[in-house]
Amino acid sequence: MSVTVVGSANIDVVSRVERIPGPGETVLARSVTQVVGGKGSNQALAAARSGAETTFVCALGDDAGADLIARVHAASGVRLADRRTASPTGTAYITVDDQAENTIVVSSGANTDLAHLSDDDLRDVTRASVLLLQLETPLGAVQQAARAARVAGVTTVLNASPVVDGLVACLADVDVLLVNEHEVVQIAELVRDEPAGSVDQAAALLADRGHIVIVTLGADGVLLATRDTPPRRLAAFRVHAVDTTGAGDTFCGAFAAALARRTTDIDADALVSAIEWAGAAAALSVQTPGAEPSIPVEASIRHLLG
Asked: How far is the C-alpha of 132 from the C-alpha of 20, rounded, in Å?
């Protein structure tokens, strides 16, 4: 089983505070740390730590941040297919409060240079069992990867975050749409060009277009909708959250790894099993501060699932 991730990589600068500041307000941080982040990077690490052979296609600067990203991915067994550019490595400024809520501001840097995939990049896409995409890099490369995967018969999972203009154009080549409750409504409204209604209605609308739709609902679990079945909810693991940063990315990467084991038969049972695996990984991740440091390994996920 193999997963190729095409996406963003950042250095996260994480400040721990008592509470998130309001507009114009200053608060003092108890600590500031630097860790590896970015949706693509987090998801690649989550897939690898879930046991999948993982390749990560990304763009980095020629700087110390890029070297740190390379070391962290090597330590987790990720094959890094990176290009080095004149732009600085992407940076995210994250504030986390005592209730585990966070705010994030991203400077994309080299991530904007991943606008077109090379022949080598496309080979990494087409040899995978599952392709995992997000939207923190230019949409052209996302569309290019999804189309190549479709032609090659590779299952494509799109974590459509953040929702961007032009997204609808690449949905035709997406098998699994993995989003949160706000994103699913936004995307359904883009597709329909009118209010989408509830989360369940939005998920059903997108499922009717032929997508498998998975909506993460935080502590309320996950919503699953397909063309053949009405939306159903799966419960989340009950844990004490310390930091939710990266939990969604952990879910995505772990889900892709679990799905890669069953790409020849993606039925309802396979989807539920993959969601349970990803839910366990995400539950473990919120109990540890930071995005990359909190991504669990396969043995820990198996232990939680019993």
From this structure: 32
Residue 209 in tokens = 């277009």
Residue 85, beta-bridge partner list: 61
> Among 57, 221, 73, 62, which residue's Cα sits nearest to residue 124?
57
Is 120 assigned a catalytic role?
Answer: no
Q: What is the pLDDT of residues 139-193, one digit of tens each?
A: 999 999 999 999 999 999 999 999 998 899 889 999 999 999 999 999 999 988 7
Tell me the two tokens of residue 109. 């840097």
Torsion sign (Cα): 95, 98, 99, 100: positive
* Under 8 Å between Cβ of 43 and 134: yes
Can you name the residues that pair with 180 across neighbouring β-strands? Answer: 216
In whole angstroms, give the CA distance from residue 59 to residue 79: 14
Active-site residue, selected from the candidate residues 173, 228, 249, 267: 249
Q: Which domains does the chain have, with CATH numbers?
A: 2-305 (3.40.1190.20)
